[in-house]
Amino acid sequence: MGRFLLLLVAASSLTTGSVLANRGLDARAGGNALAQNHLGIVVAERLSETGLEEATELVSTLTGLPATSTLRGELDGGTYTVQIVPTPPRLLTVTSVGEVTGVGREGTVRHTREATFELRASTSGAPPVARFLGQALTLEQSLTMNTSQRVLSADPALNANIHTNGGSYVNITENAGIQGFYQSVTPPTQQWQKDRLARAFRPNANPSGLAVYQTVERIEIPVIRVADYLSKATLVSATNVQPSGGVIDFSATSTAENPAVWVIRGDLNINGGKSVEVKGFVNIIASGNINVNGSLQTAAGSTLSLYSERDISINGSAQITGSLMNNQNIQLSGSTVLTGPVTTRGTVNFNGNARIVYQPLSGYMTAPLFGGTAATTAVGFRMVFVRA
Q1: Sign of the CA dihedral with 270 first, then 282, 330, and 360 last
Q2: Using an 8 Å Cβ cutoff, are 181 and 207 in contact?
Q3: Neighbours of 90 (CB within 10 A)
Q4: How many CB atoms are located within 10 Å of the residue 17 CB?
Q5: CB under 8 Å to 4, separation ≥6 — which residues?
Q6: CA distance 290 to 371
Q7: CA dihedral defined by 311, 295, 229, 377, rounded to 10 degrees?
Q8: Which residues in the chain come in under a pLDDT of 70?
Q9: Which residues are CB-contacts of 2 (< 8 A; sequence separation ≥ 6)?
Q10: Interhelix angle for 2-12 vs 33-59, to 10°?
Q11: What is the pTM of this model?
């Protein structure tokens, strides 16, 4: 409350520098009454507008309902008076009256403006996603891709970029049709490399017509270590895990804002002929390999992220919405579709019709493993109604 009164005092002294300064009401000394009255109306309207503008500026600084308050100012021979009246629990009404006296036939001219403001509730946004999971594909090594149409974007307005910390060597088919930019710490040096990249990469969004190969800073890719996540685990398996099929259900123990963390001390194997569906929001971290030779599905509305200290090999008809990340190599085969980012300290090999469809990962999924704090929106008012 003290802050509000201080701001009112400061605002009431802002009576110079207005667009009305120098206009004056000197016409009151002469001219006909009708002209004087018209000028009075114009000035009264500007006064009420000035009062409302100053009050709006004050209201924008508030974080709660103030007591009823009055703001006054003098300008260009007239005055404005602003009433600020709270209506609990969330509304604030501002009434600004501009007044000019001693003009025209009426003697006094007034104009009123009114606005209603609503107090916004405090809300939090997702934490920023870990940088090394912010591209369609992030690699420590050089890129090799000998198949076509393998890195796409779920959003036709969003780029599916590929980042590599490796060298400038490019081994990629010219008809890859990758829907993003090629970002490398070391730029391509040979013209044939540049030509091949120009044909292989087709960004969805490139309004400035930039070259599709870009030189960028290195993105540090952390080493996955199961031991680092034991303290954050909601479930720990002490040995290899080999689901027999059915549903792995985390829907009762996880939310989009609070995902589960399942640590496996060993391999995760889904054998051929087995069909597994994962429900809920879960990060699975294995100290061994992750091998999927059967069917692995992410249920609608769920997110599954797979992390491994070693290799990840996904074959068959896996349909995963989430992310993949590991220390060694990733192989995607069959009709596998990964909707989300892929990050590896090794290589990525595509076989069959496997593909990555880039979709940004929520920062809530990465925060339990790699940190990040939710961004809080400041509490404040928004104008919901105004009348002149």
Answers
A1: positive
A2: no
A3: 14
A4: 8
A5: 58, 62, 66, 69
A6: 24
A7: 120
A8: 1-34, 104-106, 123, 168-170, 375-377
A9: none
A10: 150
A11: 0.68
